[in-house]
């Protein structure tokens, strides 16, 4: 399994969502990676920057689906975790997988993204979770880059091995179906008042973030 280079990604990408899905569902092997919308400025040596979409849900604060429209900000309070969907619609053929990682610039401010794996055959916006591990509020502008995806070659992959789960083609509104609810201990008393959460968060790593 090897990581695809910038030149390889450029040679493979497409923004045609309908054509990509049609080929995949017919059992054909798409010869492309779907990234829509695509912006060459977001393409690094071996990765592509993903950007904040227009919907998110907090896993530790007030419940409900929240909008992040043009000109608005995603505000993540200290110790808060949010799940959002990417602006980009991603599609992978049967012989390519993806890994999503945090951006170092946000890690340095205490904001981490929980790394995730994207199976061959997946298509749709990516659902990602961000955690503010610092003691400061972090603000992200609508449409700003928040994580990056690396594409991996999967040799000798077969069509019937591709992902066919229910996370394909999910709509942003489906975030409300996430089974995790807001933690009442966080809402009612705050993280520091809960001894279990305090033990999890008050470690040396978080203390370093808090001093930023």
- Provide the helix percentage: 10-25%
Helix-strand sequence: HEHEEEEEEHEEEEEHHH
CATH architecture: Distorted Sandwich
CATH superfamily: Deoxyuridine triphosphatase (dUTPase)
Structural class by sheet pairing and helices: alpha+beta
Please give the number of β-strands.
12
Structural domain tally:
1
Figure out the total of helices.
Answer: 6
Instruction: Please report which band the strand proportion falls in: under 5%, 5-15%, 15-25%, 25-35%, 35-45% or over 45%.
Output: 25-35%
CATH class categorisation: Mainly Beta
Main pleated sheet: 10 strands, mixed
Mean pLDDT: 79
Head-to-tail CA distance between termini? 37 Å
> Which residues sit in consecutive blocks of at least 5 with pLDDT less than 50?
180-212
Tell me, briefly, the overall form: globular
CATH fold-level topology: Deoxyuridine 5'-Triphosphate Nucleotidohydrolase, Chain A
Rg estimate, integer Å? 18 Å
Structure description:
The protein is of the alpha+beta class and 212 residues long. It has a single domain, classed as Deoxyuridine triphosphatase (dUTPase) (Deoxyuridine 5'-Triphosphate Nucleotidohydrolase, Chain A), CATH 2.70.40.10. It has six helices and twelve strands. The chain has helices at 6-12, 17-25, 104-107, 184-189, 195-201, 204-210; strands at 13-14, 33-36, 48-58, 65-67, 73-76, 81-91, 96-102, 111-113, 116-118, 123-132, 138-141, 145-153. Strands 1, 2, 3, 4, 6, 7, 8, 9, 10 and 12 form a ten-stranded mixed β-sheet that branches. It has a two-stranded antiparallel ribbon with strand order 5-11. The chain is globular and about 45 Å long. Residues 180-212 have low confidence and may be disordered.
